[in-house]
């Protein structure tokens, strides 16, 4: 009696050797939102959480960019990081309270920026007297930006 075995080549990867078995990755769950970097350092480091700070090839960014949008960038980055953390830790009250405070900071910083430099997104048109979205200079053209 002959036994036909099914093709199981799908279980092998492309590493050298005849049969390199595939593996299952495991990533441990982050346990806490504490400690955390200050917002500008978090932006420079690429993470809010020191425990997740694993620089590629040990290359570390020392500081955040020095542009007028830096405060907005740092606050938005921390807000995004906290949103990702809260996706898996919705019951972490301390992280949620921190998230709420950064949403408030975001609103204040955005208001200061738009009053001084102009709109960042179309949504910043709310309450304006005219449509200013297409007016120069653009936010990334900070060297030519005039005081308003």
Topology:
Blueprint: H1 39-45, H2 70-88, H3 93-117
Helix pairs in contact: 1-2, 2-3
Structural notes for this entry:
The protein has 148 residues and is mainly α. The chain has a domain of 90 residues. It is 34% helix and 0% strand. The radius of gyration is 24 Å and the shape is elongated. It starts with 38 loop residues before the first helix and ends in a 31-residue tail after the last helix. The C terminus is likely disordered.
Task: Offer a quick outline of the entry.
The chain has 148 residues and is an all-alpha fold. The protein is 34% helix and 0% strand. It has a domain at 32-121.
Helix content: 25-40%
Report the uncertain regions: 144-148
> Count the helices. How many?
3
Strand content: under 5%
Secondary-structure-derived class = mainly alpha
Q: What's the main sheet like?
A: none
Order of helices and strands: HHH
Query: How many β-strand stretches?
Result: 0
Determine Rg (CA atoms, Å).
24 Å
Q: Tell the overall outline.
A: elongated
| Termini Cα gap | 89 Å
**Mean residue pLDDT:** 80
């Amino acid at each position: 009696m002959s036994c036909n075995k099914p093709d199981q080549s799908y279980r092998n990867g492309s590493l050298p050797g005849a049969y390199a078995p595939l593996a299952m990755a495991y990533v441990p769950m982050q346990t806490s939102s504490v400690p955390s970097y200050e917002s500008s350092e978090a932006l420079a480091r690429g993470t809010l959480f020191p425990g997740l700070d694993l620089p590629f090839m040990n290359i570390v960014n020392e500081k955040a960019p020095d542009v007028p949008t830096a405060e907005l960038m740092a606050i938005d980055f921390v807000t995004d990081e906290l949103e990702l953390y809260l996706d898996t830790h919705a019951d972490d009250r301390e992280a949620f309270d921190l998230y709420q405070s950064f949403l408030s900071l975001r609103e204040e910083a955005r208001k200061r920026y738009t009053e001084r430099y102009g709109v960042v997104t179309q949504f910043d048109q709310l309450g304006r007297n005219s449509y200013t979205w297409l007016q120069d200079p653009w936010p990334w053209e900070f060297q030519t930006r005039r005081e308003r």
